[in-house]
Amino acid sequence: MKKLCVIGDPIHHSLSPVIQNAMIAAAGLDLTYGACRVAGEDTARWLTRAKTEGYAGFNATMPHKENLLTLVDELSVDAARIGAVNTVCIRDGKVYGCNTDAEGVLRALREAGMAPEGKRVLVLGAGGAARAVVYKLVQAGAARVVAANRTVERAERLCGEFGAVACDFSADTLARYAAQSDLLVNCTNLGMTGVAGQFADLSFLEHLPAHAGVFDLIYSPRKTALLARAEQLGLQISNGLDMLIWQGVFALEHFANERLDEAALAAAARAALEELE
To answer: According to DSSP H, which parts of the chain are helical?
Structure first.
């Protein structure tokens, strides 16, 4: 039986073992999935250990996602463009680095009825998560992508690379762009469980058109203050749980090196998560 795991520090909170083991069982694969605490400075040592201890691969959270870029033998197109690796496959001693986060966001948006094709999208944040989202939205054919960030220079660097529009995080600016958007995606950690930061002002949501969707990458809590207010306004909402599930589905396909029954895998993951509640 080949071993898989997720690495990070801390890692005890990760839902990946629950999701992956449920999907592995549903697919009947001869794999087992665990979690390993690995400090940020130990990425290279861990990779050597994984190769010698018979791992078929592993998933990685921050700070390993960027560290792995220069440690793998081959990068997928998405991993190279986003600048982050979240899935590593080890085959015949060769290490392949992939990124399934971006495709996971895209599938989750489509599953939620928020397909970005032809849409005007406002993205909140300009960090690693926003980078994956902006890249994939532009690639998918969004009509316009605007990234708002407190440090506008960071948004400008991101948008300059992918052909998006950068703006600041002021209430007036957010309100102006919200009024011109069909979809809003939160890529900040504002509202996340355990994070002190919250949106100081959610009034920009009132400027979104009635048909707009609001997607929050956060899944703990399941309904952030952002989503709760959007729901009060009658807007379509979705959290990041399906993104987590879909990136896991795509990661397992990389590990297995074959296409699997994606709908069955996602259903198995959702059932396993429901049992935790």
So the answer is: 16-27, 43-52, 64-67, 77-82, 101-111, 128-140, 152-162, 171-178, 225-232, 241-256, 262-276
Give the pTM.
Answer: 0.94
Out of 2, 3, 65, 136, which one is annotated catalytic?
Answer: 65
> Is 65 tagged catalytic?
yes
What's phi and psi for 246, nearest 5 deg? -70, -35
Per residue of the chain (277 residues), give pLDDT as tens.
899 999 999 898 899 999 999 999 999 999 999 999 999 999 999 999 999 999 999 999 888 999 999 999 999 999 999 999 999 999 998 999 999 999 999 999 999 999 999 999 999 999 999 999 999 999 999 999 999 999 999 999 999 999 999 999 999 999 999 999 999 999 999 999 888 888 989 999 999 999 999 999 999 899 999 999 999 999 999 999 999 999 999 999 999 999 999 999 999 999 999 998 7
Domains of the chain: 2-99+242-276 (3.40.50.10860), 103-239 (3.40.50.720)
